[in-house]
TrEMBL record:
This is Uncharacterized protein. Keywords: Membrane, Transmembrane, Transmembrane helix. The chain crosses the membrane at residues 199-227. Residues 1-109 are annotated as: Disordered. Residues 32-47 have a biased composition (Low complexity).
Length: 290
């Protein structure tokens, strides 16, 4: 009886209230779970976006060969295999057109294919070649149309334009000129290899160069005579670099549509020239550089 009276006086037992630490830990767990769920949801959305054509996550920039290059890009074309196309294994590309701008990793833009059995032809009649995308689709083909003239065709066989190599007017220096004429109208691009000022300086110092070259040739012969082949090779490599800067542009436009800078690198502005013509011209030009 006493215990029952005491229970009535104390009233009902208090409800259990969770501690603040328990509440905080529950909130943290819930937020962590919801954050993980949101992260999984965003990753799933990104992957679904890549599959359905949405905006993918940032990654290495890929070149779309069907749409052409970026508004302005730098390309590089190695020329060694062009001169040795007869030694290239069947089925392999002769050389590769690559990106050369800052931040790029030399990603391939297109491949150049020269038939292994094609005759070399010389500077005024290069063998035919085809330019394909990285996916193997044909972008354009180039065929010789006579001395120094080359016709460029699209993937469907329709003509795109004509590229012409004009030899130098003087015996020396032989300042080569190029012209690019679109097949369906549009302004013609013209270019001369090397600025006039550079050629003038070259002509002035050329006598001194030949004297230095003769001295180096003598040193190389003596080194070879005494069995020092390495020194002989180094002396034989000594030569004067000819002017190379070339800019293709229209007579009324100061900005170049295609520009050869140095080391087989070209700056291309596709809004000023069909980029397939630019690819073909760049291959012919770097091939001509030796």
């Amino acid at each position: 009886m006493v215990s029952g009276r005491r229970l009535k006086e104390r009233g009902p037992a208090p409800r259990h209230t969770p501690a603040a630490s328990e509440i905080l830990s529950g909130v943290i767990v819930n937020r962590s779970d919801s954050g993980a769920a949101m992260q999984q949801s965003s990753q799933g959305s990104a992957s679904r976006g890549e599959r359905t054509g949405g905006t993918p996550q940032p990654g290495p920039r890929q070149h779309d060969t069907t749409a052409g290059p970026a508004p302005e890009t730098l390309i590089e074309i190695p020329n060694r295999r062009l001169h040795r196309h007869t030694r290239v294994k069947p089925g392999e590309q002769t050389t590769t057109i690559r990106q050369a701008g800052p931040g790029t990793r030399g990603e391939p833009l297109a491949h150049v294919h020269v038939p292994q059995d094609a005759p070399k032809g010389g500077r005024m009649a290069r063998p035919p070649f085809t330019v394909t995308g990285v996916d193997g689709a044909t972008l354009c083909s180039v065929r010789s149309a006579g001395t120094g003239r080359y016709d460029v065709y699209g993937a469907d066989g329709a003509p795109i334009g004509r590229i012409t190599r004009h030899p130098g007017r003087l015996l020396w220096p032989r300042r080569v000129r190029w012209s690019v004429r679109p097949a369906h109208g549009g302004p013609e691009l013209a270019a001369e290899v090397g600025p006039v000022r550079t050629w003038v300086v070259l002509c002035v110092i050329s006598p001194l160069y030949f004297v230095c070259w003769a001295i180096m040739a003598v040193y190389g012969s003596l080194a070879l005579l005494f069995g020092d082949k390495e020194s002989a090779k180094e002396d034989a490599k000594w030569e004067m670099e000819l002017p190379a800067w070339t800019r293709w542009r229209t007579p009324d436009d100061a900005d170049a549509a295609l520009e050869y800078k140095s080391d087989r690198v070209y700056r291309l502005v596709p809004s000023r020239v069909d980029w397939r013509l630019a690819y073909a011209q760049a291959v012919l030009h770097v091939w001509d550089r030796g």
